[in-house]
Fold:
Amino acid sequence: MRRWFGPICLVAALWGMGVAASRPAAAQGLVADLSSHLIAITTDFTGQELLLFGTLDDPSRQDVVVVVTGPQQTVTVRQKKETLGVWINRRFTTFEQVPTFYRVAASNPLAEILTERALDRGQIGLRNLELSQASGSNTFREELERFREAFIRRQVESGLYADQVDPVRFVGGRLFRTTIGFPANVPTGQYIVTAYLVENGDIVDAQTTPLIISKLGIGADVSVFAYRQSLLYGIVAVVIAMMAGWTASWIFRRL
Amino acid sequence: MNVYLPIAEMSVNWLAILVMGGGVGFLSGIFGVGGGFLMTPLLIFLGIPPTVAVGTQAAQLTAASVSGVIAHWRRQNVDLEMGGFLLAGGLIGSIAGVYLFRYLDSIGQIDLVIQFSYVILLGAIGLLMMWESLRSMVKRRSSGGAGRGRLHQHNWMHGLPWKRRFRRSKLYISVIPPFVIGLFIGVLAAIMGVGGGFIMIPAMIYILGMPTTIVIGTSLFQIIFVSANVTLFQAVLNQTVDVVLALILLIGSVVGAQFGTKFAGYLRGDQLRGLLAILVLLVCLQLIVELAVEPSDPFTIEWIR
Structure:
């Protein structure tokens, strides 16, 4: 239980913030929820899809945009250049607080329902995702842009960023739904799923839903053991290896 | 068929890993090399993060060499004294190597250093073994398989102090060369994520002048402890040892190694060395191509925990 206390508090706080901060006076109710707030990565995990569903007041003039962001981390991007006939890492830059996972779903093409300014402000869509350079690294703007593009390209290739906007569908009247796909290599941690209500080119309401992706079962135990008691873990690994080698040899001697 | 690897943080087809482990184990049984120099690139090819591939590989090597050494032990093909001096150097070298690894990793040049070291060493060793193996095959044909003449050449090495008798190897040499070879292999073992058998075996044959039959068992004996040491250090410093992956790999590889050891009995020493030379040269060629050909994407990303 204690293990979950921190994450749950954080998610609850985010939830509160999302609901409180983004309710302009004119905004009409948006209600959204996920089919599950926890994805358990067990030993047979091969990816999972979640359903996000909700209602809004008037589908004829309102749209929904859903943004899913993974836990933030620091990332270093390196570039190889040819030097004396060999490809060597030459340039690099470091970005801070980069989401490890990013996906957008919308009920209509983003450009048609939101103004450039709103997209930029809400960091909606890969094009508008902000990557801040880590303090200490000072790459010039033009090169920085190349690193940014390369990073996003690599993330899209690994399936953790989506360069396509998923559809949000209306299922009769005010009810909408969308599926969010999480691949097998999805990073663990606290995710933020935000549903935005869009009206007249601007965001008028938002709701943040918590999502935790965590290892569970034997896999989780192994991972916790490896990080918390790495010396003991190392010793156990060596002993297992030696026993396995000896057992194999013993079995084969009898065959 | 899929299983989730807790440290690599991805799910893989366990049957593919099992078969791969079996194939590499078979080769390691034949040649007495750990097979790390084949396994590590294969794991990376399957999408396992390179750091996890290297760390896990060390655990798998430990198992494979324990399994292999028992068969050689039974035939009294292990020189414990020689192994001890190689090991002393190996332990010190591998600790230094793990720290060197961390430094090179921090400046982003670890991949380059790994690949360059492989190219130089594999190239030199492969050519040397190939030349020697061909020469002895030709000699055998022309002389009708006569005895081996002198045990080994006398050279500069015999002028070194602290000589002692290595009974099983039928040698009377200084303890410095085995220690230095062990030290060198230890550093390489940590940096390359391999046991170093493919370098140590030629070094023992050509530099120390040990008989081929003793060399394989002795090198396996030394690799057990060096790889166990690397496993421990990788687990403690980098948390990159995935026991689930290691278990699947080692089940495959210890079974493969048993068949390999049996199979090796049907081959002559010079044939064995010729085959290993071909294998070593192929891996070397592959690495040269990788270094020289423009990568499909010159950018790589690395998450920092």
